[in-house]
Design a protein that fits this description.
By secondary structure, the protein is mainly alpha-helical. Helix content is 72%, strand content 0%. Helix 1 packs antiparallel against helix 2. The longest helix has 18 residues. It is globular. The N and C termini lie far apart (45 Å).
Length: 134
């Protein structure tokens, strides 16, 4: 399954307000991604799992997803990947949702630095090369 196929199927559960089925689908797809050793899909599923857990107030699920995201990012040396900034932001949001404020602040800072660095306007230039007035 591709990340896009996963997201489309997950969205179909949300459109039907089938939240328990969405949770089951998240857990099943994550197990399959682990079995296939598909790190990209694992991170995509974990990212959505964090969102689900934060929205539904499922702290145990959310903390497990945060921990596993951090482990995968570290294990595969993905810290320099531009998309990791978004994942760090989501990790921070889940941590803050469950009152882990100090941990959340660290991830928010990492996300900000990563997203600023990879912004189309990084280094004071926009996409079209015009200087940004400060």
């Amino acid at each position: 399954m591709t990340g896009q196929e996963f997201l489309e199927q997950l969205d179909s559960f949300y459109r039907k307000d089938a939240l328990e089925e969405a949770k089951d689908f998240l857990q099943k797809t994550y197990a399959e991604a682990v079995g296939m050793e598909d790190v990209s899909l694992q991170l995509t599923v974990l990212n959505e799992m964090m969102s689900y857990a934060g929205t539904m107030g499922e702290e145990e699920l959310g903390m497990a997803a945060v921990t596993e995201c951090g482990r995968l990012i570290e294990a595969y040396g993905l810290q320099d990947n531009a998309a990791i900034g978004t994942i760090w932001g989501n990790m921070a949001t889940v941590l803050s949702r469950f009152d882990k404020i100090q941990e959340a602040l660290a991830y928010y800072q990492m996300a900000k630095e990563k997203l600023d660095k990879n912004s189309p306007c990084a280094k004071d230039k926009c996409k079209n090369g015009e200087k940004i007035e400060k």
